[in-house]
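Reply to dn_fold:

You asked what the input looked like. This is it:
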Amino acid sequence: MLKTRGFLLTLAYCVWGLVLFVIFTVAYFPFKQMFDAAFAPRGLSLSYEELRFAFPVGITLSQAKLTLPAYSSTFELQSSETTLRPVLTSFLWARPTLAIESKLYRGSAQVFVSRQEARNIGLWFEVVNVDLAKLNQLSGAAGSVSGLVSSRGELVLDQAGTPAGPGHIDLEAKNVVIRLGTGIFSLSFTTLGGALALDPQKLVVQRLDARGPELALTVQGTIHLARNWALSTVDLACRLDPTPLGRERLGVLMRLLPHPPDNRPYVIRGPVLMPSIT
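and this is what came back:
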């Protein structure tokens, strides 16, 4: 009887210790500090309607909104539910890591934020089947974009929020439709895939392929990054391979190009907002 009572008492102490550990972790884990370190230097801010505990450890934000006032007062990402959890094993390596899981435009997103050397921040992310039609910033008087997009990648950012080392981004999309104006002209792609490499000065488009009923599109080249993205410049080579349907539907547009679509690429150079095409 005494042995049983001693075992139960020891078990109770262990359970209580685990409960205290969870409460301590949730209470003192630097959720906001890690978020601010990773995103605030780029002008990002986070707001939400409600915060609650997420079992077994973490917090859940309802109706969270991520805004980017530095570039546009209207650009924002909205999530019905976002959960932030500390990765407990990361404490063993003295590199606290924050896991962020979010329901995003009928899809999902997962981000891991961790401390790196020289006070840098490491980001690993995966986005699955986000509905572009629900992203209001891609719709307006100039046109709209719809389709499902998925992406994954890994980045390292310095204290200013700029790339501090090599990174990569893989991109996939399906059933993408680009409409200009009120929808009189549209261009659709059944599949789209790409691989991008990122370093502190440039974004290299290693491969970007899109195929649809009107044409096949291949893009390669470099985007030279500026702290203000509007001042960035592009140096891209683009190949067009229109289908018979595309030549019929896009004939007027193709006649505005520097030369008819053939085995020669179109070269796009200059400021990202107003490049030249040759």
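The CA atoms of residues 239 and 265 lie 5 Å apart.
Hope that clears it up.
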